[in-house]
Amino acid sequence: MEKYEQLKQVIMECEEDFTKLYEKGVKAASTRIRKAMQTVKALAQEIRVDAQATKNELSAKNED
Predict the structure, then answer these.
(1) 1: closest CA among 61, 9, 63, 30?
(2) What is the CA radius of gyration of the chain?
(3) N or C: which terminus of the chain carries fewer CB neighbours within 10 A?
(4) What's the whole-model pTM score?
(5) Which pLDDT value is given to residue 37?
(6) Residue-level pLDDT at 61
(7) φ/ψ bin of 26: left (φ > 0), alpha (ψ from -120 to 50), beta (otherwise)
(8) Nearest of 23, 42, 21, 22 to residue 31 by alpha carbon
(9) Cβ burial, residue 14 (10 Å; 0-12/13-18/19+)
(10) What is the secondary structure of 12-37 as a DSSP string?
(11) Could you tell me if residue 25 is left (phi over 0), alpha (psi between -120 and 50 degrees) or otherwise beta?
(12) Alpha-carbon distance 41 to 56, whole Å?
């Protein structure tokens, strides 16, 4: 759950930059958004791997 909370935090933190870029035309916000999205990508992959491992652990326990 910690990674999920981190993911939500990154998304919330970049909301202002989305507004700056798309509504106000501030080009520098694009760089910050791209950096945030790279972090989102990494966190999402970590969550995906962890979810798969947890599923496999639960399956192994149910087989016993």
Answers:
(1) 9
(2) 17
(3) C
(4) 0.83
(5) 98
(6) 85
(7) beta
(8) 21
(9) buried
(10) HHTHHHHHHHHHH--THHHHHHHHHH
(11) left
(12) 23
Give, in degrees to the nearest 5, the angle at Cα 27 between 21 and 32: 75
Q: Look up tokens 């962890």; give the residue.
A: 50
What is the residue type of 49?
A: V
Extract the tokens encoding 1.
């759950």
In tens digits, what is the pLDDT along the chain, a chain of 64 residues? 899 999 999 999 999 999 999 999 999 999 999 999 999 999 999 999 999 999 999 998 887 6
Residue whose token pair is 């909301």: 15
